[in-house]
Amino acid sequence: MITIERDEIGRVNVVHTPDDSNYDGGSDKMKMVTCIVRPEKLESIADTLDKMHIVGMTVTDVRGFGRQKGQVEHYRGGEYTIRFINKVRLDVVVQDEDVKKVMEAVSKAASTGNVGDGKIFVTPVENAMRIRTKEVGTSAL
Ligand SMILES: Nc1ncnc2c1ncn2[C@@H]1O[C@H](COP(=O)(O)OP(=O)(O)OP(=O)(O)O)[C@@H](O)[C@H]1O
Ligand SMILES: [Mg+2]
Fold first, then answer.
1. Taking Cα atoms as reference points, which of 34, 33, 45, 88 lies closest to residue 63?
2. pLDDT by residue (tens digit) across 26-39?
3. For the chain, what is the domain count?
4. Any ligand 1 atom below 6 A from CB of 96
5. Alpha carbon distance 94, 54 (integer Å)
């Protein structure tokens, strides 16, 4: 249900009051595109996503390893392994139809061609809410 309210100085405030059917995640199809990338690629990836009008993302500093199980370093004649390498994780929730173009854009911007370029995981998102307006589903993106 949508109600229009006005605040004390007359500004319009649209209030979405979700009924229970809006919480079941039923009809809106969204995916979380999680990208683990090199930290130095973050800016150009963010620029690319901006140009595509992706309206939000979450960035987290993370550490991890892939198939090479870290990285062998040489120091003062010794050899040791850095198991966890610093990466950046980007979480972008988009409508299903935008998943492919986000994956293509991120993989292009994140690529150096060397091992450790990163990985993209796609997972279903049940529902979302914009807290201020209480909009749910894809309207909340
Ligand atoms: N299977 C996985 N599960 C969770 N995180 C992973 C997985 N594989 C890779 N990652 C994350 O992605 C980061 C980058 O992985 P990376 O690019 O080295 O993958 P890879 O499979 O080893 O590919 P490449 O051979 O190109 O290096 C890792 O540091 C880790 O944070
Ligand atoms: Mg690797």
1. 88
2. 557 999 999 999 99
3. 1
4. no
5. 8
